[in-house]
Specification:
single chain, alpha/beta, Metallo-beta-lactamase, Chain A, 6-stranded mixed beta sheet, 11 helices, 13 strands, globular, binds zinc ion
């Protein structure tokens, strides 16, 4: 079953290239916050991640959460939010039935509360204790969350009622060399969740074997730029040390490198790689 995919950019963060690849310079580069709209002929509209939204500013107004905004400056206009862009395509928020999250960093979940009717699918691998939406945490918890790029205020208050664990979905062979088994969202192999450990707890990607264009592997933040798997140009060691698990991160990127070599027909799209996102959006628009 083929799905129709559209990639949107819901704001950008600004970072020094050197933080994303060892061989990079100190100039600033934009990291698009990519959202995928996946339309299935029988299961309606699904989003993969939700990008930035206006509430990101509110969530990062107080200290210590403001540190997040200082460390990772954001360029965002309200009209760039996923919900507004979808509206412009003629997809109202209540038609989004499922939101799959790659992980819980602020640039992936800021738009989540704009889709109150969607079930939320994510890995159960992370301990969400202490991050219950709506419950103010201690300063220590807030500092710990902020250090990990996590802003609980962005989560809906009914998160746990709407949450469906990736692991509860039926297992399915991805058919991708090096990536074994994934989890089948609709039971027809059209949208497959694939664990991609390393960047953050429970991090996952989405494998779409049949689209209106090329097969698409949306790999979230498994790496930031495609140079990581094409040229082995990884972030500096100290940057990787701040991520979820450095060894797992490197292994995941190595598997992506193997896949890129074995399956050049598959478009591998890291969420924040502007070249990859623009190239994939073009290929999808051509159909
Ligand atoms: Zn992230």
């Amino acid at each position: 079953m083929a799905v129709h995919v559209r990639l949107l950019v819901a704001g950008n963060s600004v970072q020094r290239q050197r933080f994303a690849r060892r061989s990079g310079g100190w100039q600033h580069i934009r990291f698009p916050a990519t959202v995928a709209l996946i339309e299935h002929p029988e299961h309606g509209s699904t989003l993969f991640d939700t990008g930035y939204a206006p509430r990101f500013r509110e969530a990062t107004d107080p200290l210590p959460q403001r540190l997040y905004r200082w460390l990772v400056p954001v360029e965002f206009a309200d009209a760039e939010s996923a919900v507004e862009q979808l509206e412009a395509f003629g997809v109202p928020a209540d038609e989004v039935l499922t939101v799959v999250l790659s992980h819980l960093h602020g640039d992936h979940i800021s738009g989540l509360r704009d889709f109150p009717d969607a079930r939320i699918v994510w890995s159960s691998a992370t301990d969400l204790a202490g991050a219950t939406p709506g419950q103010p945490g201690s300063l220590r918890a807030a500092l710990r969350h902020t250090r990990h790029g996590f802003l609980p205020a962005l989560l809906p208050s009914d998160l746990f009622a709407r949450l469906r664990a990736m692991e509860s979905l039926p297992p399915v062979a991805t058919g991708l060399p090096g990536f074994g088994t994934g989890h089948d969202l609709f039971g027809d192999g059209s949208v497959v969740l694939v664990p991609l450990p390393g960047h953050a707890p429970g991090h996952l990607g989405l494998w779409l074997p049949a689209t209106q264009g090329p097969p698409l592997f949306l790999v979230g933040d498994a790496c930031w730029l495609r140079q990581a798997f094409l040229d082995g140009d990884l972030p500096p060691t100290w940057v990787m040390g701040t991520l979820g698990g450095r060894d797992a991160y490197v292994r995941t990127v190595e598997r992506l490198a193997g896949l890129a070599a074995a399956r050049p027909d598959v478009l591998i799209v890291p969420s924040h790689c502007a070249e990859s996102v623009a190239g994939a959006a073009d290929a999808l628009a051509r159909g």
